[in-house]
Design a protein that fits this description.
Residues 376-499 form the OmpA-like domain. The chain is of the alpha+beta class. The protein has 13 helices and 24 strands. The protein folds into three domains: 2-78, SH3 type barrels; 80-339, D-Maltodextrin-Binding Protein, domain 2 (3-Layer(aba) Sandwich), CATH 3.40.190.290; 342-497, OmpA-like domain (60s Ribosomal Protein L30, Chain: A), CATH 3.30.1330. The protein has helices spanning 76-79, 89-102, 189-196, 222-230, 247-255, 289-293, 314-322, 326-334, 351-360, 367-377, 398-412, 433-453, 482-488, and strands at 6-7, 26-31, 37-45, 49-54, 57-62, 66-69, 81-86, 106-111, 117-123, 127-135, 152-156, 166-178, 186-188, 214-218, 242-244, 260-265, 273-278, 284-285, 300-306, 344-346, 381-387, 419-426, 464-469, 490-497. The strands form three sheets. Strands 7, 8, 9, 10, 11, 12, 13, 14, 15, 16, 17, 18 and 19 form a 13-stranded mixed β-sheet that branches. A hairpin with a 5-residue loop joins strand 17 (273-278) and strand 18 (284-285). Helix 2 packs antiparallel against helix 8 and helix 11 (398-412) crosses helix 12 (433-453). The longest helix is centred in the C-terminal third of the chain and has 21 residues, at 433-453. It is globular, with a radius of gyration of 27 Å.
Length: 500
Amino acid sequence: MFRSLLCRTGLAALLLGAPAGLAAQELTLSAKSGDLKVEGTLLEYDGEFYRVETEFGPLTVDARTVDCAGDGCPTPQETSARFAIAGDSTVALPLIEAFAIYQGAEVEIITGAEGAQTVEIASEAAGPLATIELAPQDDGDPYSAMRDGSDTLVFSTLQSPDPARTQVIGLDAVVVAASDVNPVDGITMDQMRRVLAGEISNWKDLGGSDSALTLHVANGDGSFQDRLATLGLAPQKGVAVQEHARLKDMADVVANDPFGIAVLPFSQLRTARPMGLRGSCGMYNAAKAFTLQSGSYPMTYGLSVTRPAKRMPLFAREFLEFLRSPQAQAVMTDLGFADMGIATLGLDEQGQRLANSLMIIGKEVPLSDVREMTGIMSGAKRLSATFRFQPGSTRLDAQSRENAEHLAAGLILGNYADKIVYLMGFSDGDGRARQNKSLSKKRAEAVQAALIAAAPDGSLEDVDFRVHGYGEASPLVCEDTAADAEINRRVEVWVKDREE
């Protein structure tokens, strides 16, 4: 029993170095069950495991299973976890505070002379739990903070250099914003670029009233400005603009300016209204939480956390796990992001989708395919969890891996018991329709395999999966760019009550 919690020197490689200041003194580790004791000299302690030199040789003991007595026991200060978070503190801090509440602990924020912040977390019962340094964000290369081998988590909206060590915790998007009183509800990317170039300066050219528009721009948040430049959405020199120091200040002004227009992150909209995007073929996409969660809104991107290629302290690992919890996701929603939870949408709320399908019937897509597809969707609910793959591979992208974890957990818990779970694959419009239909079904089969792999063996045996491929029968966006084609290449999840 207790012996199984001890391991020889081979497992000691799992341990990190001992905290500075641990002296070679005697201690006694007593099993909480009271049936065994280990005496010896402490060699290492990482906050999770003791490594003790005993008369039998070095032993490793799980600290959660024993009580420690003696001068060699590490003090609370020595066992407190220490790590850093690099990124936007306005996101990291609320999540840390929520985690502390979840742990029954309190938070103290210490601001240094140059504005650097340190977060101390402690509980009355356990004493100091963690010290977290909040490192300033490097807009040019946020991942530089973890390349020195330090215990650093990186919060960033930029693409991670290591997707396997990255988890997406919230979703954002580039949106065009206006006042709620402005009747214009949509704009094309080309039109917005012409606004930013000064070629369109009146709302009548966008389908509105004969009124001069006011272009608002913000100078803060370098990473967002870089994203706009990459998309060709940066204002051109010489164009008349109203400048703002911060994005949230600009959002408030635009919300109250009936003739204002701006490009903002979805998370910073506040009370401004997002305008939908129209493609060159006439398809329309609204910016709302579901379209971000399902990846169907163009210019959606994730806020992710990347961990270093080393074993981090237990407190940090538990924090990463907490970020997947409903409590953490509620914080992300409060911050303005679309969360990673699974929402539902009925076919009756997707009129634009049906209109898109009607636009392509008869080209290469037979009416029978659309009828079969809509027959399944009728009376069903689409889940926001949508699956896409890394370019040129059958590996799920970072957001889809998170979706697989969330959906598998929901299936295990019985959230969709007594329902049919349809996995419906779709393709872009490139290539022959017959081949696309076959490929889209193979992708749906790959998603089924990923869901089963994400769950304990046999736990999804009772789930009634139905796999279909419909190729290019239901495009979400016009394929004006390669990124648009990626949006259309997806696997959707629909759930429907079983017929009695």
